[in-house]
Amino acid sequence: MPKQTFFHLSKDKQDNLLQAAKNEFSRVPLHEASIANIIKAAGIPRGSFYQYFEDKEDLFYYLLSQLSQKNHERFISIMKEKDGDIFETFIHSFQFMIKDNRNTEHKNFFKNAFLNMNFKIENTLANNLFEQNQKNQYFDLINIINRNNLNIQNEEELHQVLRIIMAVTFHNLVQVFVKDLSNEEALKNYTKQIELLKKGLHKYDSI
Q1: CB neighbour list of residue 64: distance below 8 Å, 6 or more residues apart
Q2: CA–CA–CA angle 110, 114, 117 (5° rounding)
Q3: What pTM did the predictor assign?
Q4: Is the pLDDT of residue 107 over 90?
Q5: Is the per-residue pLDDT at 35 higher than 80?
Q6: SS3 sequence of 94-130
Q7: What backbone phi and psi angles, to 5 degrees, belong to 204?
Q8: Please, what's the largest Cα pairwise distance for the chain?
Q9: Region label for 193, one of left (φ > 0), alpha (ψ between -120 and 50) or beta (otherwise)
Q10: Top-confidence residue, 204 or 72
Q11: pLDDT in tens, 40-63
Q12: Rounded alpha-carbon distances, angstroms, from residue 52 to 1, 47, 110, 113
């Protein structure tokens, strides 16, 4: 998280630094990114940078969390539009994400993030919903899920279902960049996998 001095900056100065960081993290992955390039583009001294952030990782994960928060808010909005249908919400959200990730401003940033995925990046992109400090957002989410058509017994099973669908979602987002899939092909693959989860995989003998 940024230091308090960052939040004392004007919004324009905050946005300028974040945009400079996003440009650098779009150019190369986090481990190759240069603080020198970021402060040059932002027009600030190196000393000022360390008054705002601990290091480039701190800045990267803050930027990622900001983008993730916007995705979460959009997800909640879609969930409400879909009357709590979890499968339709994930499919619609995935469709929006792959289109958004093709946008020149976002494409390389997310490409570098997804192709260099680790637990912390995935957790941040998932908005840390399962972390203790995000419990309120988690409860906001599960309270609007329509459970009437879900074959689940309790909240723990719903929790695991969300984890499974998120894992499938991240895998498919990575594949978009690894295989350079078209939006149509990516959505087709993802929809097929979500429909399989929705249908279930075990076939029971009819009596």
Answers
A1: 113, 121, 124, 125
A2: 135
A3: 0.83
A4: no
A5: yes
A6: HHHHHHHHHCHHHHHHHHHHHHCCCHHHHHHHCCCCC
A7: -95, 140
A8: 75
A9: alpha
A10: 72
A11: 999 999 999 999 999 999 999 999
A12: 9, 9, 24, 22
